[in-house]
Amino acid sequence: MATSVEGRTRPAAPGRESGRDPESGRAPDGGRTGRFSGGPARRRAVGLAVTLLALVVSVVLSVAVGANPLPVEAVWRGLWHRDGSEASLIVWSQRVPRTVVGLLVGAALGVAGALIQALTRNPLADPGILGVNAGAGFAVTLGVGVFGLSDITGYVWFAFLGAAAATVLVHLIGSAAGGLVPAVTLVLAGVALGAVLNGFSTFLTLIDPDTFRSIRNWGLGSIARTGVDDALSVAPFLMAGLAIALALAGSFNSIALGDDHAASLGVNVARTRVLGIVAITLLAGGATALTGGIAFVGLMVPHVVRWIVGPDQRWILAGSALAAPVLVLTADALGRVLGRPGEIEVGILTAVIGAPVLIALVRRRKASGL
Amino acid sequence: MTPRRPPRRGAEGELGGVAFGYAVRTLRGPWFSGRVPARGVAVTAVLALLAAASALVAISLGNYLIPVEQVAAILVGGGEEFERMIVLDWRLPVALAAVVFGALLGVGGAIFQSLTRNPLGSPDIIGFDAGSYTGVVITMLVVGTTGYWPVAAASLAGGLATAFVVYVLAYRRGVQGFRLIIVGIAVSAALGSVNAYLITRAEINDAMTVGFWGAGSLTRVSWTSMLPSLVVAALIVVAALLLSRDLRRLELGDDVAVTQGGRPNRARLALMVTGVATVALVTAAAGPIGFVALVAPQLARRVTRSAGAGLCGAAAMGAALLSGAHLLSLLIDRFYRPVPVGLITVCLGGLYLIRLLVRETRRQYGPPR
C-alpha cells in the first residue's frame, strides 16, 4: 500500500517538475528540439499564422457544414440576405449562434486547461478530468432543480460557485504536500470528485424529470442549444477570466520553477494562485453554464501549443485561446456530419479524440515541459 | 492458503506459531487441514450475516409492506398466496441479486487489485465496467436483442476487449500501475461518452428510464435473468477459488511464483478472464454498478486487518455493501423517489475514494503545508 498511488513519481528536488515522469525523470527541456527548425521566434510566428488560418477555416466549416446538407451558395446567400429563406433561417438561428458559442467556450476551456496545468504543475490536468466542470454542473442542477432557476443569468452564478468549490478542493488535494503530489493522485481525486458530483446531479434530476427532460443531454456537452443572448450574457465573465489569465501569465513562468523560486523572484505566489483559481472558475464555470461541460479540450490544446511555442506561459495561454476554438468548432462540425440525420454532441467527440491524447501523454517517456 | 471454511471443525485448534498480529488457528481434519485466520473467518461470517439481514429487510420493504417475520415464514414455505407471490416472485430475485452481485464485484475487485498490486486498479476505475456496458448497450439498443445469453456474452466480450485494449496501451516494458490507471481512465471516459450517446439516441422517451439505464439498477432483475446469473456466478466463484492460490503466488512476484510451481502468465490470463467475467455478469443484468469493486476489498482488508484481503472477505464485504446500498435505495424510495442503486454506490464509493487518496497522500508526503 505504501507505493499504491505511485510513490515513484515524487520529484527528486523542488523545481524539477518533470520528475512526475515515472521513468526518465529528466529535465523538462530534454527533447524539445527537432521537428521545427529555426529559432523560437520563427516557430511561434509560423504557429500563430497556421492557428489563425485554422481558426478561419473552422469558423467557415462551422457555418457551412451541418446536419442539413445545404449547398454552399445557399449558405452564403443566407448569410448576407436575411430573407426568411430556409438557408438563411438555419444559418442565422442555428449555425451562427453555435459558432459564436464554440469560439467563446473553446477559448475559455483551452485557457482554463492551460491555467490549471500551470497552477497544479500537472501535465494531465484538465477542468473536465479534474471535476471542475462537474462541480459547475452539479451547482447548476441544484439551481435549476431546487431553486427553480431557468435563466442562464441566474444559474451562471451557481456554475461559478460550483466551479470555484471544485477548483479549490482539487487545488487543496494537489498542494497537500507543497505541490509534490503525483499527477496520478490528482487525476484520480478529480475523477472521483467528478463521479460523485455527477451522481448527486443525477440524484437531483430525479426530483423533477420533466424539467430535466429539456436538458437531458446537457451533461454530454453541446454548443448547439445555447442562444446568442445567453452566450453574450456570459461573455463578459469569460472575457474577465481571459484577461486575468493573460495578466498572470508572467507570474506563472516563475511559479513553474517552484513556489520558493517564484517568491525569490518577487512573485506574490499566494495572490497569483488565488487569482488563477478565480480565472479558472470564471472560464470553466461560464463554459459549463453555456454547454454543460466539454472535457479534454483543456487537456489537449495546451500540450499542442506548448509543443510549438515552448514553455513560455504567456505564449501558451494566448495560443490556447486561439487554438482551442479550432478544436471545438471542428469537432462540432464533424459531429454534425457523422451523426446525420441527427448530430453527435461536441463533448462526446472531444472525449473520443481526447482519450487517445491522454494515453499518449502517459505513454511518453519525457514529461511535457511545464 | 485460502481461508476456506473447513467442511468440518478440525480435531485440534491451536494458535498458530507465527503471529502477524492476529490469531491464526491451525485446523486438522480428515479432509482438510490448514491455517485459518480466526479474525478473517469471523469477520467474513459477520459480513455475510449482515448481507443476509439487509436482504431480508429489503424484501419486506416496498409499496406493500410485509413484516420481516412474515418474510422469513414465507421463505421457509409458509404464508398466504398473494404475499408469497410478492416475496418469492418479485422481491426475492432482486434482493438475491444485490447479495450475489455484490459478492461478485468484491471478488472481481480483489482479483484486479491484487494483479495490479494497486488498490486503485479495480475494474470500475480502469474502464472494464464501461466496456462491458458498451457491449450491453450495443446489443440491446443497436442490435435489438434483450435475451439474457446474447447480452451476457456481449457484456463479457466488451469487458474482455476493453481489458485487452487497456493492457496493450498501458504496456511499455511491463505494465505499471500508474500508467494502467490513467490509460483506464481515458478509455473509460471515451467509452462512457459513447454509452451516453447511444442511450440518449435510443427510443426511450422516459427520462427516468434513461437515468436508471445509465446508473446501474437492480429493479429490472427477475428470475428469468437471475437464474442463469446464479449458474454463471457459481462457475465464476469456483474458478476464483481454484485460482486463489495462483493469485497469492503472483503477489510475491513472477520469479517467486515460478519457483513455487506456478505459471505466472497462464495464471494471470485465467485470473483476468475470471475478474472481467464477474464485472461482465453484473453489468449484463444490472448495468454499471460503480465503486463496489474498488471499495469492498479495501474495506475487507481493513476490517480483517490482514495484508491480503482474501477473496472470501472481499466477497462478503461486497455482498454486505451492495445489499446495504439496495436497502438504502428502497428506503429513499419510500421517503423520496426511486433511486438506482448504482447512484448510491457511486456517491458513497467516490467519497471513500477521495478520502483514501487524501489519506495516502498525507501518509506519503506529510500533512499539508
Automatic annotation (TrEMBL), chain A:
> Which compartment or compartments is the protein found in?
Cell membrane
Recorded GO molecular functions are: transmembrane transporter activity
User: Quick one: where's region Disordered?
Assistant: 1-40
- Which of UniProt's keywords are assigned here? Cell membrane, Membrane, Transmembrane, Transmembrane helix, Transport
Q: Which residues cross the membrane?
A: 45-67, 99-116, 128-149, 155-174, 186-207, 234-253, 274-301, 313-334, 346-363
Q: What is the membrane topology here?
A: Multi-pass membrane protein
Recorded protein name is Iron chelate uptake ABC transporter family permease subunit
Species of origin reads Streptomyces lonarensis
Taxonomically, what lineage is the organism? Bacteria, Bacillati, Actinomycetota, Actinomycetes, Kitasatosporales
TrEMBL record, chain B:
Keyword Membrane belongs to the record: yes
Q: Where are the transmembrane segments?
A: 41-66, 92-113, 125-143, 149-170, 177-200, 220-243, 269-296, 308-332, 339-358
Question: InterPro entries, alphabetically?
Answer: ABC_BtuC-like, ABC_transptr_permease_BtuC
**Listed GO MF terms:** transmembrane transporter activity
Cell location: Cell membrane
What keywords sit in the KW lines?
Answer: Cell membrane, Membrane, Transmembrane, Transmembrane helix, Transport
What biological processes does GO assign it?
siderophore-iron import into cell
Q: Which domain of life is it from?
A: Bacteria
Topology of this chain in the membrane: Multi-pass membrane protein
Provide GO CC annotations from the record. plasma membrane
> Is Cell division given among the entry's keywords?
no
Q: Which CDD domains match?
A: TM_ABC_iron-siderophores_like (cd06550)
Please report which protein family the annotation says this sequence is part of.
Answer: Belongs to the binding-protein-dependent transport system permease family. FecCD subfamily.
What is the recorded name of this protein?
Iron chelate uptake ABC transporter family permease subunit
